[in-house]
Amino acid sequence: MSETFFEILRPGVNTTIQDYGRKYLYHIGVTVSGAMDLRNHKLANALVSNNTQEATVEFAYQGPLLKLKNGKINFAITGDVFFKILRKNSEVENGKCYKNYVLEQEDQIDIISTKNSVYGYLAIGGGLKLKSYWESYSVNTKANIGPNNGKKFSMNEKIQLKNSNEVQASDKKIDYKSELNNFIRVIKGTNFDYFSPESQSKFFSEEYSVTNLTDRMGMRLKGSTLENIKNTNIKSEGLIKGVIQVPADGNPIILLNDHGTIGGYPKIAVVISADLDKVSQLTPNTKIKFKEVSLEDAENIFKSYLSETNKYLNEIN
Amino acid sequence: MIKNISNLGDASVYCDFGSEVNENINSEVIKYFNYLSKLVKNKKIEGITNLSPSYNKLIISFDLSLTSFSNIKNSIEKIQIENEIKHQSKNIKIPVCCEDKYGLDFDRLTKKLKLNKKEILNLYFSNEYFCYMTGFIAGMPFLGDLEKNIRCDRLETPRVKVPEGSVGITEQFANIYTFESPGGWNIIGQTPKKIFNQNETENPALIKPGDRVTFYEITEKEFLNWNE
């Protein structure tokens, strides 16, 4: 049986394989990686009846143009994505996100762009055929870790798919509503008291704007500069996803999935777990505001986040 | 001893062992790190996803859908490390070529330290270093302590690209750039030895926290013909 695969006719801006990311490797300098928007990654898999641990294709802004070879598949795209399905008989269908589709041999998926968001996810029924590295398929392009030699996809490469026997039309879909507000909830960081009282209050009262110096490693913000009254460096220590660190120039940086594992800048705050998917979808020039919550609040908000995800998962099944 | 335990965000525990950087405090951190790693490996504790030991802190990340700050904090407070599992500390020897082509910052170092290149290298190579932590980029070791006379601030403007294998010094520390990366350390040479290899699934990082490292000088010819 010949192998089913996608031929990449256009790779897109930053198209990589992602899953839940890696564990237990911070101590050797290997970061978590994984899907930037974990909920959408999960929902994409669920829409094609995959285990939610399966890898998906993550794309940013302009996505790939893919042609299916030797087979037939089910697929679904999640996020806020503009895409078309180009059938081999030249018919063109406008694609809908959060919906299961069947793709025939020689059909193409043209992922034109994300809308008012950064990342989208493509899941294939049965999954992708990949080698895992430390129990994860996630690609980390900064350290070249993961499948495809740890690199983003380029022209004329192939995405190998597992052959699935049970391809049939499915009515799996959900009515997904993304939460649109620009409040990012945070917990004060371990170095909050390094900043002047004025800066502490500005941090929570003024708007910050997302700059284009934003990628899978982190998001640089611009706004009121934060004045450090103690020390602009700390002894290097561990970092986690969601930490907001402030270098000597006073502009905060939110660390995201491919962040360095150790750093020496003071941590003013940490984004709560429930808001990380939302943060990763912020496009440059978006204005955001930080809102302080307690640990207990954050834990409760996370419970609602999980039950909302489960509500969507139940809608699919 | 852990001096203070607090939360860093809603999904990690921040254990503070003190503010100084020295081998004693760091050994405490590594002791806890080894102990917790074993608990995680033997599935004796639920939900931990990562452990980040550094000079004097240990950050424990966890999956908030499986556990919580108070759970992990309680477990940590109960830990009594009696029969300490001695870390099997290795002695690792790293070859370095210090020809000017690879040792990029001798002009700066000789001026700042008021020592000539040979004096700097003698002091550098005669010491044995302790690995406090690894990270920033995959496998990068943070080694110390440098002899007092060769301690120097980092570059005012960091390099956009430091070549892979570069050996750097700053303040009391030495490191090795395991990948090409931006960086501000003073570069004194380059090693041909692979320090991090993702295909070695079990042991990708050659140098681990608690290990001891010595460096020795090789010629450019040896550098270019290096074969592992």
Give the SSE layout.
The complex is a heterodimer of chains A (317) and B (228).
Chain A: E1 5-10, E2 16-18, H1 38-47, E3 56-60, E4 65-69, E5 73-78, E6 81-86, E7 92-94, E8 101-103, E9 108-114, E10 119-124, E11 158-160, E12 183-188, H2 197-205, E13 208-214, E14 218-222, E15 237-238, E16 243-245, E17 253-255, E18 262-263, E19 267-271, H3 276-280, E20 287-292, H4 295-316
Parallel strand pairs in A: 12-20
Antiparallel strand pairs in A: 1-4, 1-11, 2-3, 3-10, 4-9, 5-8, 5-10, 6-7, 6-9, 12-19, 13-14, 13-20, 14-17, 15-18, 16-17, 16-19
Chain B: E1 4-7, E2 12-16, H1 23-41, E3 48-53, E4 57-62, H2 69-78, E5 91-97, H3 106-113, H4 117-125, E6 129-134, E7 141-144, E8 159-162, E9 166-170, E10 173-176, E11 181-183, E12 186-190, E13 212-218, H5 220-224
Q: What is the ordering of alpha helices and beta strands of chain A?
A: EEHEEEEEEEEEEHEEEEEEEHEH
The share of residues in extended strands of chain A comes to: 25-35%
Largest sheet of chain B: 7 strands, mixed
CATH architecture type of the largest domain in chain A: Sandwich
Q: What pattern of helices and strands is seen along the backbone of chain B? A: EEHEEHEHHEEEEEEEEH
Shape of chain A: elongated
Ends apart, CA distance between termini of chain A: 31 Å
Q: Name the structural class of chain A.
A: alpha+beta
The CATH topology name of the largest domain in chain B reads Cyclophilin
- Over all CA atoms, what is the radius of gyration of chain A? 20 Å
Under CATH at level 1, the class of the largest domain in chain B stands as Mainly Beta
Mean pLDDT of chain A: 95
Describe the structure concisely.
The complex is a heterodimer of chains A (317) and B (228). Helix content of chain A is 15%, strand content 29%. By secondary structure, chain A is an alpha+beta fold.
